[in-house]
Amino acid sequence: MRRISKLTRVAVGVASLALAATACGGTSSDNNDSGGSKEDLGLAIAYDIGGKGDQSFNDAAFAGLTKAKDEFGYKTADVEPTEGETDADKEQRLASLARQGYNPVIGVGFAYGPAMKAVAAKYPKTTFGIVDSVVEGDNVASLVFAEEQASYLAGVAAAKATKTKTVGFVGGVDIPLIHKFQAGYEQGVKATDPKVKVISQYLTQTAEEGGFSSPDKGKAAAEGQIEKNADVIYQAAGLSGQGVIEAAAKAKVWAIGVDSDQFKQEALAAYKDFILTSALKDVGGAVYALAKSVEDGEPLTGTQVFDLKVNGVGLSESNPKMAEVPDLTDAVAEAKEGIIDGSIKVKTE
To answer: Which of 45, 142, 186, 319 meets the CB 3.0–4.6 Å disulfide criterion with 134?
Structure first.
């Protein structure tokens, strides 16, 4: 059984699916024992903080679920988190999905780590997946990403686009995962133009304080950075990032989106002219890849790494205004090549 691998290009293209679709199905009655599926249901995902409609991380996972549902023609389920929930609540949610016969069951976000470890051991015939965390288990696939690589490219773009020589970074919560975004971004900025100043800020110390789910906090942070002359702001803040984008558009400066191609998001259409690009993270591709492996009878397990080499991360090119920024496209392409061939080593801290 493989424990560590890098997936092939199976994930490519999922992020372009429409992310504003309605929820797919619900859940059926609990009539299975802990041995695994009897009803042969399909993929189920349990959302992270912010839930569906964040136009970012969770919606990308839903895109993967939609693709699997359409391709395999089976029943799916997607379940929202609750405010102030505990690990026990998450454990109960995952266990309920497994009992009903959903397979695979995916926890979207590192917060599902403790619950995933406990539940996977009780349902050995169900394949589990967790996004953004590594959980050991014979029936668990840990879907992790090289966020720092996409963020480096975002930093290159920011350094090329800034006119004030000041750019910003807004992280949702001060945790190691978001440190990867910050580290890659700052490195990309400085490698491109050492004279550019980077202002970095985190909204909260813990997720429970709303760092990933409070657009008002994101808006206030962005407004503060704009007052300090930042004219490009990269956000890695989940739902809170919508506030960053709103503030940037109001001030007519650039925002850089995250996880999904936020230039294409219908809910952000009013601001899209000011979304320079987005650091992509193909969560949808990872979700679909795990579902396909189960459907094919060869479930993925262990740590599955999505990086630039397999198009698991990247930088969007949807906004035609990118091409109007001198040298931006060429600089990003050169940096991408360097990361892939190993001549550029991107930091994670």
So the answer is: 142
